[in-house]
What does this fold into?
Amino acid sequence: MHELSIATAIVERAEEIARAEGAEDVSAVTVRVGELAGVVPDALHFAFEVARDGTALAGARLLVEQVTARAWCDGCAQEFTVGMPPFFWCPRCDRPSQELRSGRELEITGVEAVAAPL
It folds into this structure.
C-alpha cells in the first residue's frame, strides 16, 4: 500500500510548513489528487490516520480534492474527460489526444496550522 508512504510524506511536509509559520499543531491538510495519480482516496485517508499519530498532526483532518482527468483535442480545440480506465480518444472527432491537461496531480494545497501559545 503505497498510500502509507504518501501519507507519511504529507505529514512530514505539513509539519515543516507549520514550523516555518511558527505553529505548534496542524488542524487540517488539503491535498489535490488526480484521477490518474494511482492513489485511492479512501486508502490515503486510512494511511493518514496511521501516519499522523504522535506528530503535530495527531488531530488533523485530511481533505482530499479529487481532480478529474482531462485531455485536449487539437482537432476540435476542446478538452474532454478521459474517464477510468482512461480513454484518450476524442468523443467528438474520434482522434487520439496527445495532451493530458489534468489528472496526475498529487499536491498539498493547504495546511491549517494552529498557532503556538505566546
